[in-house]
Amino acid sequence: MDFELSESQKEIRAAVTALCARFGNEYWHRCDSQNAYPEEFVKTLSEAGWLAALIPQEYGGAGLGMIEASLILEEINRSGGNAVACHAQMYTMASILKHGSAEQKRKYLPRIASGELRLQSFGITEPDAGSETPRIKTFARREGDHYVVNGQKIFTSRFQNSDMLLLLTRTTPFEDVRKKTDGMSLFLVDLKAAGSAIKAVPIATMVNHTTNQLFIDDLVLPREALVGEEGKGFSYLLSSLNAERILVGSQSVGDGRWFVEYATKYSKERRVFDRPIGMNQGVQFPIAKAHVAVEAASLMRFKAAALFDAGKPCGAEANMTKYLASEAAWEAGEAAMNALGGYGFAKEYHVERKWREARLYRTAPIANNLILSFVGEHLLGMPRSY
User: Fold this and answer.
1) Is the distance from CB of 344 to CB of 338 less than 8 angstroms?
2) Is residue 183 part of a domain?
3) pLDDT digit string (tens) for 259-304?
4) Within a domain: residue 260?
5) Could you tell me which of 86, 74, 72 has the C-alpha nearest to residue 258?
6) In the chain, which residue ranges form alpha helices assigned H by DSSP?
7) Which of 231, 256, 271 is the last residue of a domain?
8) Domain termination residue (choose one: 114, 133, 149)
9) CATH code of residue 205
10) DSSP code, position 101
């Protein structure tokens, strides 16, 4: 097995690193403190073509694979940035590319690739359903050649910064389906056309995530907005969820490496009792242990991405990537916070911002305990735990 990156992959990593160098820690501190969307960064990233990595060349994209996409997002976070501002535009591609109609691809993909349109919002979670997705209540009722949608979504991010929304609804009530994951449908929503039918109420959170609760009232969608076949939306969703877990895991790998590199440099330079604090095993060992965990998570990420690119089942590997990487990043963040001591809480050192951002991925897009439940039941054959 060859674990070396190809020359083109190394060039991608170097190019993204160079782009990110134009947006240093102060830029991200300013966005965080003002709770502002990193408009300039996303625009620059789009113009460079990196957000179109997974879009085929025939539609104006780069035609790259999941491995390359994962490297792009990893480098953004490793450089001190926060790829959460735009990562949805990558993982939503899986549903559209695999299940979207020829007309949807022709109409939207070139404009998304050029940056003219932003597809950075995904409406799945609901207040009452939580992680039990089949229990969603948002309903799309078929009326002739269109659908009328009513319901609510919560923790829907980047709504205000998107032109398109990928929306999961029920088209058959939960109580009327034989299999609980049946009867859900996926729609590609033009937010400008939606107008006032969707009302977004921002949710204040501990990280700059621009997340919202959505209230959907009599949203009229043309038949052409349906992705694939009616009632099969959950199976289509899995394509994007596997991509999301791999890409989020890659961001966590980037966070973990940022923490390890920052803490290592600090522990070499910071002197207490006439010696660098990195000489103390209480400082050195947690950083070293975090580094080991990040490297292991990175390898699982590459395995999952390679399987994804080969069109092979990768649900287990994608979930384990997200789990390992988010836990490794948090471990690295804790090591960095402890190494810096009181300075870790000072915003000018930027560690506390990255620490808050890294914590998110132990909970979202899926709680790590649910991943352990998946592994226990589906990989190890243990009794269902919930």
Assistant:
1) yes
2) yes
3) 999 999 999 999 999 999 999 999 999 999 999 999 999 999 999 9
4) yes
5) 74
6) 7-20, 25-33, 39-47, 66-78, 88-91, 93-99, 102-114, 191-194, 233-269, 281-309, 315-340, 351-360, 368-374
7) 231
8) 114
9) 2.40.110.10
10) -
For residue 99 the two structure tokens come to: 């299940």
- Indicate which CATH number applies to the domain containing 241: 1.20.140.10
DSSP-H helix ranges across 34-140: 39-47, 66-78, 88-91, 93-99, 102-114
Residue 83 has pLDDT above 90, yes or no: yes
Q: Work out the end-to-end distance of the chain between its first and last CA atoms, rounded to an integer number of angstroms.
A: 38
Do 107 and 128 fall into the same domain?
no
The pairing of strands 271-272 and 211-222 is: unpaired
Q: What is the largest CA-CA distance in the chain?
A: 79
Q: Please report whether residue 385 resides in a domain.
A: no
Look at residue 1 and tell me whether its pLDDT is greater than 80. Answer: no
What gap in Å lies between CA 6 and CA 3, rounded to an integer? 9
Residue 2's pLDDT is what? 79
pLDDT confidence of 78, banded at 50, 70, 90?
very high
342 and 294, same structural domain?
Answer: yes
Q: pLDDT tens digit string along 140-158?
A: 999 999 999 999 999 999 9
93 versus 164: the higher-pLDDT residue is 164
| pLDDT tens, position by position, 115-136 | 999 999 999 999 999 889 999 9
Beta bridge pairs of residue 124: none
Q: Is residue 139 part of a domain?
A: yes
Q: What backbone torsions phi and psi does residue 60 show, to the nearest 5 degrees?
A: 90, 5
Are residues 241 and 375 both part of a single domain?
yes
pLDDT at 330 > cutoff 80: yes
Give the CATH number of the domain where residue 18 resides.
1.10.540.10
Task: Report yes or no: 109 and 61 within 8 Å, Cβ to Cβ.
Answer: yes
Long-range contacts of 124-128 (CB under 8 A, 24+ apart): 124/153, 124/156, 124/168, 124/237, 125/153, 125/154, 125/155, 125/156, 126/151, 126/152, 126/153, 126/154, 127/152, 127/154, 127/213
Q: What is the domain range of residue 35? A: 7-114
Share of the chain above pLDDT 70, in %: 100
| Residues 44/22, Cβ–Cβ less than 8 Å | yes
What is the distance between the alpha carbons of residues 121 and 135, in angstroms, rounded to a whole number?
21
